UniProtKB/TrEMBL annotation:
GO molecular function, one term: endopeptidase activity
Pfam families (alphabetical): CtpB_N-like, PDZ_2, Peptidase_S41
Entry GO CC: outer membrane-bounded periplasmic space
Region span, Disordered: 434-457
This protein's name: Peptidase S41
BP terms from Gene Ontology: proteolysis; signal transduction
The keyword Protease is annotated on this UniProt entry: yes
InterPro entries tied to this protein: ClpP/crotonase-like_dom_sf, CtpA/B_N, PDZ, PDZ_sf, Peptidase_S41A, Tail-specific_protease
Keyword Hydrolase: yes
NCBIfam families: prc
Signal peptide bounds: 1-21
PDZ domain ranges (all copies): 88-170
Keywords per UniProt: Hydrolase, Protease, Serine protease, Signal
């Protein structure tokens, strides 16, 4: 996610015919035409022919080719993916913030679908699904063996239809079933309120198509309520990212005009770019969503004392914002070192359609660049280090070790900036955190140590307000900057 979708053409010719005795395919590579490897493609054709002829059951030729393409792309890195027509539809829906489904953010763990977070007020949220729940069965289909995209397909559907999920809750060591009615999910990516006189809180849960316009509207309302804000907290905790242009726009709301927000570097000329704090880099079809701000509000945003909250769940576009505001000394960053997703994905419609939302058949989402902060630091597999490390609770950073980071993902890209060191003690820390979480989840909800973000029990938010007031902040005594982790070969 994250890169403003650039549509490029793919050159392809030829077909699998016989054993591919004659192949003259060519493709664009490093800016010039290079022949594809004939011998390896002949092996591919031989395997295709053998499977089609000798497999125990008849196989669909189209599915064989599709699976081969999907496998080839999946072997690159965790964020490159081949999208068939249905997956492509889901991708386009997700970036607008509207889709029909149960309303959960998910990842994969041990072959199962893991709930990262239920979307607030969604059917899954109302049904009681929780972070770290494992979905083991969807209707009558076992999840183990399904790809994440296949799992998503089965949970999405038409409005008002039902899906039966079998869920394993690790901290309670039990499996249960829950029937959820699918709905049109309209995710609200921006929350804002005055937390105490003179101090505001704006939370971005994702960078979607509507995020910047919603941000402008809610900030305007906040300034109407409190015209002389003394300080503002921008909360990017557990924000997984989204549109790059939205991240650039949010950064531009706080930064001087035309300073660098983010740069990227890859193999091809079009994968090398620099985005600046100017409407030409984020306004879609000439429409600047920040233009709806009152000039006085826009000016106030450029000078209001600012603290940004981040944690291990802050990824991609949220890391771009945090890195830009930190490098330009516009904000103090508090919290924990971020996720480390510093790669750019370019979406390519394989039939050459100009717009991704008009792409009728299939597309490729391919990692093409690495992101860099304005000072030139790579975000990839390292993340952004806060100015002040602050734990989640007064008792400590109890459960952060359980969060997946970019460096935990199989086949993750290295940062590209020097050697990386493997943290041998991480699994021990994770096991200790698992035990603590199990004990915590046995307590009544009101007594648990991780309150809702933005509530009066939000410890990190309290420390952010203290930072804005110039009061002493209770910094972590245990958190240290993570070393980059070596990619396993």
């Amino acid at each position: 996610m994250g890169h403003k979708l650039k549509i490029v053409g793919l050159l392809s010719a030829g077909a699998l015919a016989g054993a591919l005795a004659s192949i003259s395919l060519q493709t664009a590579a490093r800016g010039s035409l290079a022949p594809l490897p004939l011998e390896e493609l002949q092996q591919l054709a031989a395997v295709f022919s053998m499977v089609k002829s000798n497999y125990v059951d008849p196989v669909d030729e189209k599915k064989l080719i599709t699976d081969a393409i999907a496998g080839m792309v999946a072997g690159l890195d965790p964020h490159s993916v081949y999208m068939d027509a249905k997956t492509l539809k889901d991708f386009n829906e997700g970036t607008t913030g509207k889709f029909v489904g149960v309303g959960i953010e998910i990842t994969q763990e041990d072959g199962y679908i893991k709930v990262v977070s239920p979307i607030e007020d969604s059917p899954a949220f109302k049904a009681g699904l929780k972070p770290n729940d494992l979905i083991v069965k969807i209707d009558d289909t076992l999840v183990k063996g399904l790809s994440l995209n296949e799992g998503v397909k089965r949970m999405r559907g038409e409005p008002d239809t039902k899906v039966l999920l079998s869920v394993f809750r690790k901290d309670e060591n039990r499996t249960f079933q829950v029937t959820i009615t699918r709905e049109l999910i309209k995710t609200q990516s921006v929350k804002a309120r005055i937390v105490e006189p003179g101090y505001g809180w704006v939370r971005l849960s994702q960078f979607q198509e509507r995020t910047v316009a919603d941000f402008a509207r809610k900030v305007e309302d906040m300034y109407k309520q409190e015209p002389r804000l003394k300080g503002l907290v921008l909360d990017l905790r557990n924000d997984p990212g989204g549109y790059l242009d939205a991240a650039v726009a949010i950064s531009a709301a706080f930064l001087p005009e035309n300073v660098t927000v983010v740069s990227a570097n890859g193999q091809l000329p079009e994968s090398k770019f620099t985005y600046k704090a100017s409407p030409q880099f984020y306004a879609r079809h000439g429409n600047d969503p920040l233009a709806q701000l009152n000039p006085a509000t826009r000016k106030a945003l450029s000078t209001v004392p600012l603290v940004v909250l981040v944690n291990e769940g802050s990824a991609s576009a949220s890391e771009i914002v945090a890195g830009a505001l930190q490098d330009h000394h516009r904000a103090k960053l508090l919290g924990s070192q971020t996720f480390g997703k510093g790669s750019v994905q370019t979406a390519v419609c394989l039939d050459g359609a100009f717009r991704m939302d008009n792409c009728p058949t299939a597309a490729l989402k391919l990692t093409t660049s690495r992101y860099y902060t304005p000072s030139g630091k790579s975000i990839q597999a390292k993340g952004i280090v806060p100015d002040v490390m602050v734990d989640e609770t007064e008792e400590g950073n109890l459960f952060a070790a359980l969060r997946t980071r970019e460096a935990d993902l199989e086949k993750h890209l290295a940062s590209g900036q020097g050697d990386e060191v493997k943290d041998a003690a991480r699994e021990k820390v994770r096991e200790e955190a698992r035990k603590k979480l199990e004990e915590e989840m046995k307590k009544p909800a009101a007594d648990r140590k991780l309150p809702e973000y933005g509530s009066d029990k939000d410890f990190q938010l309290q420390q952010a307000i203290k930072q804005l007031k110039g009061q002493p902040v209770l910094a972590s005594k245990t958190q240290v900057e993570r070393a980059e982790e070596k990619k396993e070969n």
